[in-house]
Specification:
Length: about 210
């Protein structure tokens, strides 16, 4: 019986693979790939949308539809809580279309993706440091941007997150009786900022705390 089921599964796999090969599309106009990508996003199929974008990019590398497609896909992934993929699309946009006038908008979207992803990477020192640097750079380069107030808020949240992370790391070293290392991390904190806002520690459920710092 198991052999029969295995044979059926293999046969089904080959049938699906054969159908997939027959349905391979190529050599289509840029508008075709773009519209197909939008349809897949509306259907909630982001993998399909990514695939159509890949076709658009590979067949029409200089298409004026590419920049907009990147931003749309980035925002779609952000809405799906897929922040790394969202940040990837925004990064690619910034690398390839740095001369466009809407740089502040694209950079804001990248910073926003980092902010939403903060809950998943809250203990990643490099992630927090890079996010702080990007927010700081935005505020220096686009002080008059309509998105500056939002970035300023995100910048502050990341700074407070950095303070909490440093305190948590210092606590680990303190438990290991490594006082010098603990002091080093505490000295990195902006005490003026800490005193001004006096933030409450993030709430960590007891069942998470067991395996946590």
């Amino acid at each position: 019986m198991r052999v029969y089921l295995f044979a059926c599964a293999v046969l089904l796999m080959f049938m699906l693979f054969g159908c997939a090969k027959k349905d391979v599309e190529y050599n289509k106009p840029a508008s075709y790939w773009y519209e197909a990508m939008i349809k897949e996003i509306n259907f909630g199929n982001l993998e399909g949308a990514d695939g159509y974008f890949a076709s658009l990019q590979s067949e029409h590398i200089n298409s004026p539809l590419l920049p907009e497609a990147m931003l749309i896909l980035g925002q779609a992934h952000m809405e799906r809580d897929e922040y790394l993929l969202a940040a990837f699309y925004f990064d690619e946009y910034l690398k390839r279309y740095s001369s466009f006038d809407n740089q502040d908008y694209a950079r804001y979207l990248k910073i926003l993706a980092n902010f939403y992803g903060f809950k998943n990477y809250s203990k990643d020192q490099e992630f927090i440091a890079q996010s702080i640097e990007e927010a700081q750079s935005f505020l220096q380069n686009y002080p008059q941007s309509r998105y500056a107030p939002y970035v300023e808020y995100i910048y502050l949240k990341f700074q407070l997150g950095q303070i909490e992370l440093n305190a948590a790391i210092a606590n680990v070293y303190r438990k290991q009786n490594k006082k010098a290392a603990a002091e080093e991390y505490l000295e990195r904190n902006d005490n003026a900022l800490l005193k001004y806002f006096n933030p409450k520690p993030s709430h960590v459920p007891w069942y998470v705390r067991i395996f946590n710092w």
